[in-house]
Write a structure and sequence with these properties.
By secondary structure, this protein is mostly helical. It folds into two domains: about 30-180 and about 190-230, no CATH class; about 235-354, no CATH class. It is built from 13 helices and two strands, in the order ααααααααααααββα. It has helices spanning about 1-15, 35-45, 65-70, 80-95, 100-110, 135, 150-165, 205, 215-225, 235-245, 285-290, 300, 345-354; strands at about 315, 325-330. Keywords: Signal.
Length: about 350
């Protein structure tokens, strides 16, 4: 009993010391937030230049909501802490003319957040709009074992490469945000193929060779040029969708790939698209009889959303966030506040997650 009391007292004393983060002593279901420690360290340098929200450390933005809240400062939505941290770090680096700092802020925004089990996707940030459009265009990688993660994570990396290139950085660094190989669904440890070492400044995911790159070098360079070689870029899947009338949410954004959208009736005529053909587009023509309405559904179809918000996506030559190239964005930016993206999957995932 004396030994137990002493041990508890010692832990209490340590937790009470200044500079010691309580979260590091708590049991965490998926301890991997230090895997990309090299990225966290670079972002910390930029964040510390000016930190008006008193964010305690970039590491908190990679934790689950409960643990993240402990280091969120004045950021009230812990699911937006990662974005807020990246946004402030990017602003500071941009003010300082630090391309490397901006690059790593972008990479940090695209890192996978911790979740409670293998295959569980993390919650998107919807309550805060990023100040910097470069940050707003990105979202976090998802658990590689979650539904559709391989394609989505590649699209996120493609967008990341394009954004890095746009600020004058090396687009091949987009792979720094790549995550682990998929774990086994049902793994009782909830650990998957992760690592977590707060003493490995190079990032244990790199040191141990556990990082599975999303892009080849050629794909990263193609993304920087807006080319079609990097999976679902604007010049690839995006342009095909717009030209062939399938920008009606890529045969499944309003339908969540099989008629399972948030409204479960997001088609222009309430069809499920189980056959893989966009409704009202049986011949491959765009909605509104090729009238250029690349968002899902025409005026008649809009009514089928009922009380739900409009989950459609628009392919625009001049996106509302000031992007200088054609890209996809949510039609209803109030309900789905996400920056434009070259890959339609980046936006569709955000809408479906919301």
């Amino acid at each position: 009993m004396k030994q137990s009391i002493f041990a508890l007292s010692l832990v209490g004393a340590v937790l009470g010391r200044p500079g010691v983060n309580r979260y590091s002593f708590e049991k965490r279901e998926v301890p991997q937030e230090h895997a990309h420690r090299n990225v966290n360290l670079e972002v910390s340098k930029s964040l510390n230049l000016d930190n008006p929200d008193n964010i305690q450390d970039p590491i908190f933005g990679l934790l689950g909501a409960k643990a993240a809240a402990e280091g969120a400062g004045s950021i009230t939505d812990p699911d937006c802490l990662q974005q807020a941290t990246a946004d402030q770090a990017f602003t500071n680096a941009k003010t300082a003319g630090d391309v490397n700092g901006m690059t790593f802020a972008l990479i940090y925004r695209a890192l996978e957040r911790n979740t409670g089990s293998v295959g569980l996707a993390s919650v998107p940030c919807t309550s805060i709009q990023a100040v910097n459009p470069e940050i707003a265009a990105l979202q976090q990688h998802q658990d590689p074992a979650s539904d559709g993660a391989a394609a989505l994570n590649k699209q996120i990396a493609t967008e990341l490469a394009a954004q890095i290139s746009a600020i004058g950085g090396d687009p091949t660094l987009a792979n720094e945000a790549s995550t682990f190989a998929p774990g086994e669904i049902g793994d009782q440890t909830a650990k998957g193929n992760t690592c977590d070492d707060d003493a490995d400044d190079a990032g244990c995911i790199n040191t141990l060779g556990l990082r599975v790159d999303d892009l080849t070098e050629d794909e990263a360079l193609a993304a920087a040029q807006g080319g079609a070689g990097a999976g679902n870029s604007a010049a690839g899947n995006g342009t095909a969708n717009a030209d062939n009338g399938n920008a009606n949410v890529d045969n499944g954004i309003a339908n969540n790939n099989a008629g399972n959208s948030a409204c479960d009736s997001g088609n222009a005529a309430g069809n499920s698209n189980t056959g893989g053909t966009a409704d009202n587009n049986a011949s491959g023509n765009a909605n509104s009889d090729n009238a250029g309405n690349a968002a899902a559904g025409d005026a008649a179809g809009a009514a089928s959303f009922g009380s739900c918000t409009d989950p459609t996506i628009t392919f625009s030559q001049a996106p509302s966030d000031g992007r200088q190239e054609a890209a996809f964005e949510a039609t209803d930016l109030t309900a789905f506040p996400h920056g434009s993206a070259l890959g339609i999957g980046v936006i569709s995932s955000f809408i479906c997650g919301t």
